[in-house]
């Protein structure tokens, strides 16, 4: 365990505030709570393996760390303890597989029609459920059949005096390239040349599944690609709020990576909505928005809240005439990346999301907004309501959908 | 991001100031290290329970109390302002059905069977008032480790003129081994659960007994559960505040943050303030910790409600050096350098550090050694302010509410 995380344990005064906020211990006795498996159990984790595996039921949402009044790194303690546990026990094949979105993406993209058919075929899913342990009802995204990287290579971004690096992450690349195109269009509309460096997975799913070594390899490769741009003074922008948080904070605080490349990249990384709102604060954001007469419930995902930047999407959406964004305060959708895909955790994940699903449904809107891709898929799965990244609303309000002749993703 | 007012701290004082200001149309941001005292303290508003002796009427006792303690935060506030804060609070949170005011304290039983004076109490607790005496029965829930009705009843019988006894019920918990207060509260949100409790109590209650439950009767629908229990049991029912985590305080946090969001306020929890920007005697901004890089938030006015020694708003290091954690403001109530040692031989005496905090003027602005405001647009609220000993005075939430409200009023009136 890294000192940064381990040392924070001594600040725990056992107030149990974290336990009252944990969305997972609320719905399952299998997870005894963040304090219990974290600062409390950690004191008893000596050399050798622990018989207690309940820390695996922590989703890593990070709410406990946010609400802790004593700065205890509770979620980080739990992530590191889980990694140690899996190191000792051996990581199951399923967890190895679902933690490598770029491998899955490279395999699935060329055979997208077949793969998408199989993922919706009940018999196949029943087999996968039984053999691999991926729940047969879990929301699996559709392969787009093309990659954002390929589109970006053929897309000449206009030459201007302002450039931004776009870290699109795996979800955009393999499943939602249309969202990536919208991000590029919105940034270009605001006078930026968009640089899309080659990039692979950031390692976040591997980290969540306890495979820190593999996660660090992916992470280091990614930051090596991004660091030269950061050193040139270019901001790095990401619409994947959880992968962006990996670069900003988790790589250092959870994986324990300390190097100059990462430092340069961290400091240059912005969540997309954070970046756009900063432009607006400087008076540099184009505000030629057309009215969008929509009511949109907005859910800030847990990892978005981990950025500590408030909810810039709400301020951006407020700029669009006739659009009414409703701030939802349900804590977590339950999916937590790959957590809700697992056979033994799917029901838990749906129970966690219940309140959010209810709030989205009660808002009575045709679509919802949310920054994180897996959370959007979970919201759609739990409610039947289409969930979009806030950038899609900005894109439409700028009228870029009509200009580009695409309808995004 | 520019706001009208930034409130530092998300305890009762901070949320009160924030909500009051947001209601008046201000753009308000609350930044906080974490969640505050609401999750530890009950939702009763204890204004002044003990002066030299037990206080029967805060209204009558306050003047004499502040005369005797001129550096107490209440000495900075008029009784009218304190009363106005209470009226606002009661009206703003109608779901709690708060009863009472400054006129008289009720005496509510605590979980250890002590009679505690409170000025304003949620309707779910009000019928626990011990002053008129009578017969009480306290209902324990099997499995709830933080509430021992037999201990409560026995202690209460010793210290007050009531007769008290205990019953334990064992409603089905659904197989879970370890359920805390909040777990019980979530179960009480389901009618089937309290139905089982009512069923178990049938025939066990005396005709004139008042029935006390641990304060776990639901979270968002506590008023409803309480009313249902009164109807079904055909007796007066009340809740007894429990040990942390305090379910009644959690209700307060949920209700106030909901109201704040609906009034357009923003809440940023998990982002401790790590720096400040000040210029010409004004606070221009605060720098809050965020992933990768600290973020500056600017506003016209600021409320410092970061708590006292327990919450870290006032920080003591291992060398005994004491400082206000955000602005490094001047402190008062410090023990003399060669004065009494920081530990006393008697456990429950006033501690030499109890009154340490930020001295304030009549607009609750932190002052320097000469009594002048350190920053014209910075106000303090809650336990950050020097001069009170809430745990001895039974004044904690009362001070938080009164000073949070008063700080907001000072800002709204444009005092600078």
Description:
The complex is a heterodimer of chains A (409) and B (416). Chain A has helices at 3-6, 17-21, 34-42, 63-67, 74-89, 93-98, 101-108, 112-120, 122-132, 148-153, 169-175, 177-189, 204-208, 212-231, 241-253, 260-268, 272-281, 302-305, 312-317, 346-363, 373-383, 390-397, 400-404; strands at residues 163-167, 193-195, 236-238, 269-271, 294-299, 323-327, 367-370, 386-388. Chain A is an alpha/beta fold. The radius of gyration of chain A is 21 Å and the shape is globular. The mean pLDDT of chain A is 95. With 416 residues, chain B is an alpha/beta fold. In chain B, 29% of the residues lie in helices and 21% in strands. Chain B has 11 helices and 17 strands. Chain B has helices spanning 12-23, 58-68, 79-92, 123-126, 149-159, 181-188, 191-201, 222-233, 247-262, 390-393, 396-412; strands at 2-8, 28-32, 99-100, 106-109, 115-118, 120-121, 134-141, 162-169, 209-214, 237-240, 266-269, 273-279, 282-288, 295-304, 314-316, 322-324, 378-380. In chain B, the strands form 5 sheets. In chain B, strands 1, 2, 11, 12, 13, 14 and 17 form a 7-stranded mixed sheet that branches. Chain B has a 4-stranded parallel sheet with strand order 8-7-9-10, with helices on both faces. In chain B, strand 15 and strand 16 (322-324) form a beta hairpin. Chains A and B meet through helix 2, helix 4 and helix 15 of A and helix 9 and strand 11 of B.
